[in-house]
Amino acid sequence: MEEIVSLYSSSGDHMLIAECWFKSTRELKEFVKKLSSTRG
What we know:
Distance between the termini: 15 Å
Strand content: 25-35%
Number of helices: 1
Number of domains: 1
Helix content: 25-40%
């Protein structure tokens, strides 16, 4: 996923934190849709 510019491993409530950059709200919506359909 080329939108992810940084990915961090963490302990606590959230195991992964991703920094993502988008040019528009439309790109963000498409990314969320793609991410929600990913298994794992």
